[in-house]
């Protein structure tokens, strides 16, 4: 994703990008609670950056809808709700369906090879030392797999819209990842889902691929709903 706010010189740009990436990661992982105030003094200490780069990072996070700017009062982590959860996941599934249909129509042999390669790498995530490492590696390869599928649509604007929705859904999605035990059985179930998806994509079966993709993307919603309700979030 292009960070338009970071165009004011390499050293400052690097600090701003680093602060953005770290703060975004920590918000998604729940280190900051929804609606928690982000105090500049604490952010400086936490991320080793000065006010300028941090403001640029926070501006980008506002654009990502992970942070809310409060007039004359600084910044807060964006709130979360069941209504937003359902809207974002539905919007993402609808857009992903469109992108998938175009990818099946437009994707070439190189695209098919990339889909197969990323699916293979994802299926190989089994022997990892710690649960956190397993979660991180599986999540990275899972994202790469779906990005490879989407790339076949050959539409930079649609892919940019997809990235925006993914940024917004990621905080909710991580609640699902935390709740889902990445056991050998769970990994095998996901491997089977991905294998079925690859099979219908390579067969250019648009209707079946669209149906499987939507079911796959919407799987986390009931689990996340239970987590939010248990926390008193409506």
Automatic annotation (TrEMBL):
<keyword id="KW-0805">Transcription regulation</keyword>
<dbReference type="Pfam" id="PF07729">
    <property type="entry name" value="FCD"/>
</dbReference>
<feature type="domain" description="HTH gntR-type">
    <location>
        <begin position="13"/>
        <end position="80"/>
    </location>
</feature>
<keyword id="KW-0238">DNA-binding</keyword>
<dbReference type="InterPro" id="IPR000524">
    <property type="entry name" value="Tscrpt_reg_HTH_GntR"/>
</dbReference>
<protein>
    <submittedName>
        <fullName>DNA-binding transcriptional regulator CsiR</fullName>
    </submittedName>
</protein>
<dbReference type="InterPro" id="IPR008920">
    <property type="entry name" value="TF_FadR/GntR_C"/>
</dbReference>
<dbReference type="GO" id="GO:0003677">
    <property type="term" value="F:DNA binding"/>
</dbReference>
<dbReference type="InterPro" id="IPR036388">
    <property type="entry name" value="WH-like_DNA-bd_sf"/>
</dbReference>
<dbReference type="Pfam" id="PF00392">
    <property type="entry name" value="GntR"/>
</dbReference>
<dbReference type="InterPro" id="IPR036390">
    <property type="entry name" value="WH_DNA-bd_sf"/>
</dbReference>
<dbReference type="InterPro" id="IPR011711">
    <property type="entry name" value="GntR_C"/>
</dbReference>
<keyword id="KW-0804">Transcription</keyword>
């Amino acid at each position: 994703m292009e960070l338009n706010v970071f165009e004011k010189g390499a050293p400052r740009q690097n600090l701003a990008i680093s602060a953005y990436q770290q703060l975004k990661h920590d918000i998604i992982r729940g280190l900051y609670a929804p609606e928690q105030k982000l105090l500049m003094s604490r952010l400086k200490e936490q991320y080793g950056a000065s006010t300028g780069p941090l403001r640029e990072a926070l501006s980008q996070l506002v654009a990502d809808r992970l942070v809310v700017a409060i007039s004359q009062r600084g910044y807060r982590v964006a709130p979360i709700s069941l209504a937003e959860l359902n809207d974002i996941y539905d919007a993402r599934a609808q857009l992903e369906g469109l992108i998938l249909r175009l990818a099946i129509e437009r994707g070439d042999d190189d695209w098919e090879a990339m889909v197969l390669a990323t699916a293979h790498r994802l299926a190989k995530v089994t022997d990892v030392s710690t649960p956190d490492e397993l979660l991180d590696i599986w999540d990275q390869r899972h994202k790469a797999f779906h990005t490879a599928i989407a790339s076949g649509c050959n539409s930079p604007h649609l892919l940019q819209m997809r990235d925006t929705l993914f940024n917004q859904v990621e905080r909710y999605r991580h609640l699902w990842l935390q709740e889902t035990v990445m056991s050998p059985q769970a990994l095998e179930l996901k491997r089977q889902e991905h294998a079925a998806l690859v099979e219908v994509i390579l067969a250019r079966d648009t209707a079946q691929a669209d149906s499987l993709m939507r079911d796959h993307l919407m799987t986390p919603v009931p689990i996340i709903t239970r987590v939010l309700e248990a926390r008193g979030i409506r």
